Amino acid sequence: MTAYDHPFSIAPMMDWTDRHCRFFHRQLTARALLYTEMVVADAAIHGVRERLLGFDAAEQPVALQLGGSEPAKLAEAARIGEGFGYGEINLNVGCPSDRVQSGTFGACLMRTPVLVADCVGAMKAAVSVPVTVKCRIGVDDQDPEAALDTLADMVFAVGADALWVHARKAWLQGLSPKENRDIPPLDYERVYRLKSRYPDRFIGINGGIPTIEAAIDHLRHIDGAMLGRAAYHTPGILCGADALLDRRPAADFDFAALIDTMADYAAAHIARGGRLSHVTRHMVGLFHGLPGARRWRQILSEEGPKPGAGPDVVKAAFAAVDLSGTTVAAA
Q1: Which of 2, 88, 138, 311 could disulfide-link 144, Cβ–Cβ 3.0 to 4.6 Å?
Q2: For the chain, which domains are there?
């Protein structure tokens, strides 16, 4: 067992895992490590920090993911993030978007492992919280055996506390970011082999994991499993995560209490000048597969964005859901 111990986490996802999403996910699972969207180091240093980095203490444990390729800037951004209270700083070495490539960071850093190590070393020297890396198994025509081993060797040599691996290559030319999440084949065995090479280091796996049960199956081979789109689009699967991870019987989940909590949270956000849809857009998939789920989605999607919409919209949508006979697993 490594000192870093987060067997289950929810991936950093651009435009999705903002503070409202993380607060919502935290109501569903106490165990998951939550990640921010990627924040570019320059933005953390020069931008409106409270808007970019602020979060509710209820979200903890929460990690800040940074994007960048300049060690000094990443070190400064990491210091700022630690000052905001984040319990971990993560370096993005996996995002394949054009915007990230134009800044020479994200997945293209797989080609420059020495630079990645320089960045991680600078961040480690700047903060006392864990510094971790999220990467791919390789990019473009790289050999995943050599590419991933080399990156792992270098970042662990400078003190990285964990390596989270999206078990796909990224194709920087010819595929869109969306296609890069689906088309390159998953190679979980490659990540398992890396763990065999590093039995005393934390290696986590990400990519295409559809359920908590599938995540737990990965934990037979690896230290951590990270859910992405499944957690976002069908967040109800998170309701039973803690019980499954703890190998204890699941209790009935109190959805009424959840709705009250989210309505109160939305009301406070609106009172600060926000809009209801900032919160409810992350909740539309909560009751996926249950009677009334379509009406729930319809009310939140149509009524939530309207000017003046308030938390009563959330309660009206909940009234359309039939939870009779529902268990944690079914949700």
Answers
A1: 138
A2: 8-246 (3.20.20.70), 255-319 (1.20.120.1460)
